[in-house]
Design brief:
This protein has 23 helices and no strands. It has helices at 39-47, 51-60, 66-88, 90-94, 98-101, 103-106, 112-144, 146-149, 158-178, 180-205, 222-235, 257-285, 287-295, 297-302, 307-338, 345-366, 370-401, 421-436, 455-459, 461-464, 467-486, 511-515, 529-532. It is a multi-pass membrane protein. Its main location: membrane.
Length: 533
């Protein structure tokens, strides 16, 4: 993946299996192809996993009954997935990854903060996926060959887990390097395989549901129900906001927005809603399952399976988690370059590997509860990503009025701004309020959260359900809209250093926008007027 449009070996995606050469440059119109429906399997394969069953268990644990869990989770998934779909519309309009398009709102230098935390968000999700894939593979070996790979109590040995981690990480990184076209091609097959095996999994676990006990859990009050919706939003959709346009940017510029929104929304929501229902039914009839899932979400669920199905299904789980990690690492590579560092694909891959290794070590050997660390990560990163997403959606109004002029990714004088303090200030205010109104069950994360809450609120549903995430999103978006449209504080694009002939508005599909501006994709690159052409 390159940082500029100087490469002439770019490959079109969709049915192309070569290594992608496009980086964070705008994808030229000549390489645009495909239909919005192609987005569905990408998002579907990313989200179809029995980990989604654990999500239902987590939402139930707030204090909801089975039916409240299903309704609240479904609403939360649909709302947050639709937000990702809206963000994805910017992909075909500009040909840019999401965390580069955010330069329109924040400025080429001001975008450092959202791009950096977007990178951390992607990396955190990959830590989770790769860690779970590694432990699933290690558990498989420990059950099939206990004399070699299991220790006392039947748990896999540390070398077994570490060995699986190395293999999973290597496979994931290799697949991610091939890029967009390769990912789209393999995700279709992975979506089918994982979907079929997951349906088979349901036939084994649904008989475990004790239907007569589903009404035993008491219903939560309205505030707890709202908390369930918000927790569902933070578990699934909000974590993908910073990647929304990464897979839609190869679509033709005139692609209908409703197709992009629909394919993205339902690709994310359909599998997790199905898994949510199963998780709610299982935990509603067996409270001990919730306790087991808090420490080992996949192990707790696969223990319900007969050995002859456990073996192939564990392999499919590993494949699905590697698939999710691959798409995430692809986006995290884009995010790292969007931060502004002129790094090659090999360097970003090495950095990703080191950070994922460190995160996996913490999750495997330091954290005492997967659920506590997972929820804490979600709340922390969702505060900033949700606020950024809200501001970006508001700025779409301005971007559309300016004909999606991609020169706005550049610095002051070359079509954009170095800083747009209206968006940056809104992001900071929303983030501070959000961090102050969420809590963390992980003691290390808890040190930087909940400082605006009382002790009762911190340990109650307000803190546990991450309501502060939505508060931060609404506050940041509202403040930016107020400054931009009510007070009309709009820092217009600065084109003063461009040649006079290029300072006016150009058609959004002008070839110069796709070919000449991409050299500026790194925020701190200085060019002269001749290069600007």
């Amino acid at each position: 993946m390159s940082n500029s449009a100087a490469d002439t070996t770019t490959v079109a995606t969709g049915n192309t299996m070569g290594v992608e050469a496009n980086g964070i440059n705008p994808v030229p119109d000549a390489e645009r192809r495909g239909k919005p429906s192609g987005l569905f399997p990408v998002w579907f394969s990313w989200n179809v996993s029995i980990l989604g069953v654990s999500y239902g268990i987590f939402i139930f644990s707030l204090g909801l009954n089975v039916w409240q869990t299903i309704i609240a989770g479904t609403l939360g998934y649909l709302i947050s997935a639709a937000l990702v779909g809206l963000i994805a519309v910017g992909g075909p309009r500009t040909g840019l990854p999401t965390l580069v398009q955010t330069r329109f709102a924040f400025g080429s230098k001001g975008n450092f903060l959202p791009a950096f935390f977007g990178y951390l968000s992607n990396t955190g999700w990959q830590v989770t996926s790769i860690t779970l894939a590694s432990t699933t593979g290690a558990n498989l070996f420990a059950k099939v060959w206990p004399a070699v790979f299991a220790g006392d109590g039947g748990a896999p040995t540390v070398p077994t887990t570490v060995g699986w981690f190395i293999v999973v990480l290597a496979v994931t990184m290799t697949a991610a390097v091939f890029g967009h076209g390769f990912i789209l091609a393999i995700e279709v097959w992975i979506a089918w395989i994982t979907g079929v095996m997951t349906i088979a999994f349901l036939f084994f676990v649904l008989p475990e549901v004790k239907w007569g006990q589903l009404g035993d859990a008491a219903a939560g009050d309205p505030l707890v129900f709202i908390g369930g919706i918000i927790m569902a939003m933070t578990i699934v959709g909000i974590g993908f906001i910073n990647s929304g346009g990464d897979f839609s940017r190869y679509l033709p510029r005139k692609t209908h927005a409703r197709g992009v929104i629909g394919a993205t929304t339902f690709g994310i929501a359909v599998p997790v809603i199905a898994m949510l229902i199963v998780g709610a039914l299982l935990v509603g009839s067996d409270a001990k399952l919730g306790e087991a899932a808090a420490n080992d979400p996949i192990g707790a669920l696969t223990s319900l399976l007969p050995m002859w199905f456990f073996i192939p299904f564990s392999i499919v789980i590993v494949i699905s988690l590697v698939s999710a990690a691959t798409t995430g690492i692809y986006s995290s590579g884009l995010a790292l370059m969007a931060v502004g560092f002129p790094l090659r694909r090999s360097v970003t891959t090495a950095i990703n590997a080191l950070l994922i290794a460190a995160g996996a070590f913490y999750l495997l050997f330091v954290s005492t509860s997967f659920l506590a660390t997972f929820q804490s990560f979600l709340s922390l990163i969702a505060v900033l990503m949700g606020t950024m997403g809200g501001i970006q959606l508001v700025d779409f109004i301005r971007q559309r009025r300016l004909n999606w002029d991609i020169r706005m990714i550049n610095g002051s004088g070359f079509g954009g701004r170095d800083w747009r303090w209206t968006a940056f200030t809104s992001l900071i205010v929303g983030t501070i309020v959000g961090l102050g109104t969420v809590s963390s069950a992980d003691p290390n994360f808890a040190k930087i959260t909940g400082f605006l809450l009382t002790e009762d609120a911190r340990t109650g549903v307000i803190g546990q359900s991450n309501i502060g995430v939505i508060g931060a999103m609404v506050l940041g978006a509202a403040l930016y809209a107020l400054l931009t449209f009510a007070f009309k504080i709009d820092l217009a694009p600065d084109r003063s250093k461009l040649p006079v002939a290029e300072r006016g508005d150009l058609p959004a599909d002008a070839e110069i926008l796709a070919e000449g501006v991409a050299v500026l994709a790194t925020a701190d690159v200085d060019i002269d007027a001749e290069d600007a052409r």
